[in-house]
Amino acid sequence: MSTKKILPALIAVLAAVQSNRADACTGITLKSNDGSTIVGRTIDWSGAKMDNIYVVAPRNHTVRAITPAGPDTGLEFTTKYGYVGMGMEQSEFLVDGINEAGLSAALFYFPEYGEYQTFNNADAEKTIGDLQLVSWMLARFATVEEVMDAIRDVTIVNIYPDASTVHWRITDRTGRQVVLEITDGVPHFYESEIGVLTNAPGYPWQVANLNNYVNLVPGTAGPTKLGALTLRAFGHGSGFLGLPGDFTPPSRFVRAAFLSSYHTPLATGYDASMHAFHILNNFDVPLAVQFKDAKPPVDMPAATQWTVVIDMAGKMIYYRTMYNSAIRSINMNDIDFETVSFQSHPLDAVMRETIIPVVIQ
Fold it and tell me: Does domain 3-207+264-346 have CATH number 3.90.1150.10?
């Protein structure tokens, strides 16, 4: 692929990320009674309308990474495992996905708090850009432990020097999940026991901040005596009074942590996947709320461009988009990763809602 094909799209993507208008992605994790782990998330880019795609990669597909020096100048790697990923603009830039070994990887915007190593052309052959790290992890590894070991041997940089940073959620088939954040040029892994990720600040702060909401419980609060008065809740759900409802990353982290921690029993991976969509409904971001005077510079239906849910045991990928809220699926069990060709396709063949008429007899 030529520089002329890659760099304009790359710069457009990174300019949108840098705009500080793409910071509302929310990730959750659920478990079903049959042992499946479900990872779901929203992807929010409010500064630009992206060409959102899904990518299918076979085994034995060789890639050379993009670096600040240009296309095909960085780390070369060959896919050990076939994978399906969701991305933007170009097949190299995956945001979320899962491979045939059961490893899932996803990136989330991480402004102001991350810091990668400085690019050194002498180290280009072991260097990979942050936006390609998901595809590298899916291509090469089966477990969280393997990723943690391999990160020591690569250099992760911004492809575009002025762009902000991201951090990553990595989950394997055992259900183990870690968050990777790079600060001062050093990778840090945090065990993700709560299964939630948003954006800034860093993951340890977000977890500590949950202690500010120790009063939140499911159900209805009260009645409570206040002097001669008896105070009663106006309705169900008052145990969650004080749950933050705004769209800042800390508030979304708290909301996601509580909503994903309290749910009815989920029998199968399918049941948990569909429930994940209901939880993630709470994180759809109306476009205008992210701009002063409610005047967005882009013409889109929403800031939440798409939502994806992955049943890791079932190897099912479900998604919907800002244009079409109908849930679509990709069954990885139907893909022969030995023979399938490398390919990418738009998430929406037609950018409009699927409306099913109700026929009255």
Answer: no
